[in-house]
Amino acid sequence: MMRWGDCFCWIFAYFFSSSYLILLFQFQQLRKELEKRFPGMLKIDGEGTPTSTGWFEVTVDGKLVHSKKNGDGFVDKEAKLQKIVLAIEVALRK
């Protein structure tokens, strides 16, 4: 859960793959970057399931904002990160 004033939102990332360690690294990098941009305001949870493949999903406040499975790929470009950051900022304004 994230708090900024009286605003809250959840960030949850699913990472499923036979390349579990690669996706875990991607998740950790995303977590680190978001915590740097929103210090002390984040609650980020992740779940990995090595038996499923190809997923890296990011949900902010219950809304899917990034999906590797649906064509977004990894969060490896600033534009992809900005999409997630914007979703966090919008959720905080509610």
UniProtKB/TrEMBL annotation:
The keyword RNA-binding does not apply. Keywords: Membrane, Redox-active center, Transmembrane, Transmembrane helix. It holds the Pfam family Rdx. The keyword Disulfide bond does not apply. SUPFAM superfamilies: Thioredoxin-like (SSF52833). One of its GO terms (cellular component) is cytosol. The chain crosses the membrane at residues 7-27. InterPro entries: Selenoprotein_Rdx-typ (IPR011893), SelW_related (IPR051441), Thioredoxin-like_sf (IPR036249). PANTHER family: SELENOPROTEIN W. This is Seleno W. It comes from Pelobates cultripes.
